[in-house]
């Protein structure tokens, strides 16, 4: 990703990736189906890149996408606004019911990613059932998946979106447990003084007071 992109969007139909990745630079982007719209990612147009005829379940779900969703980056958080007439199902490492997707009804919005929460989970070695990509969000249109649904995996959902976050935009900067140092510390640097020692138990408090270092 270049420095101005905060994510890329990948569109999937069942287990097949359809079309190229869609880079996102503006703070908000619309993802929609076969409806007139001035800008954003048109999934109906993207579906023309599919190498095989769609299954009937895919065709039916495409018709339900409509105005789709709006993804909005607001500071350290990412929101999803459901603008369609059908629910969408969202999976994110910072939603508390992960890996079970969260149902988002029409005309509702949800904070689907929080950088501070992601850092907190990483710092506590939070465990999940199955592989979890801390920089990936997934949205299924109209169909849910998981232990409470007939579709156990998202790759069984007819139409779904993968949001690939740019890691450099959402780094974990946890410093609460970092030790306080009297001077800048380079984690990739070692220092040796000949033949004098330094530190709180010696007359020389810093290595810069040693004759040769």
TrEMBL record:
This protein's name: MH2 domain-containing protein
Domain MH2, chain residue ranges per copy: 6-191
Coiled coil, from the record: none
SMART domains attached to this UniProt entry: DWB (SM00524)
Gene Ontology molecular function: I-SMAD binding; transcription regulator inhibitor activity
SUPFAM superfamilies in UniProt: SMAD/FHA domain
GO biological process, one term: post-embryonic development
Species classification: Eukaryota, Metazoa, Ecdysozoa, Arthropoda, Hexapoda
Source domain of life: Eukaryota
Key words of the record: Transcription, Transcription regulation
Transmembrane portions of the chain: none
GO cellular component: heteromeric SMAD protein complex
């Amino acid at each position: 990703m270049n420095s101005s992109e905060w994510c890329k969007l990948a569109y999937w139909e069942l287990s097949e990736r359809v079309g190229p990745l869609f880079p996102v630079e503006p703070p908000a982007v619309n993802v929609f189906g076969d409806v007139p719209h001035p800008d954003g990612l048109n999934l109906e147009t993207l579906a023309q890149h599919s190498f095989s005829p769609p299954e009937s379940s895919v065709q039916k779900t495409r018709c339900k996408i409509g105005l789709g969703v709006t993804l909005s980056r607001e500071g350290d958080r990412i929101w999803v606004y459901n603008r369609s007439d059908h629910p969408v199902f969202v999976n994110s490492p910072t939603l508390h019911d992960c890996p079970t997707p969260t149902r988002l009804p029409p005309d509702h919005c949800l904070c689907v990613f929080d950088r501070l929460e992601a850092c907190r989970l990483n710092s506590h070695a939070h465990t999940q059932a199955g592989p979890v990509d801390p920089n990936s969000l997934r949205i299924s249109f109209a169909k849910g998946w998981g232990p409470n649904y007939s579709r156990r995996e998202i790759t069984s959902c007819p139409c779904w979106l993968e949001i690939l976050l740019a890691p450099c935009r959402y780094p974990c900067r946890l410093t609460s447990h970092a030790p306080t140092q009297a001077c800048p510390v380079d984690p990739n640097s070692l220092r040796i003084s000949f033949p004098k020692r330094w530190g709180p138990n010696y007359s020389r408090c810093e290595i810069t007071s040693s004759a040769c270092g």
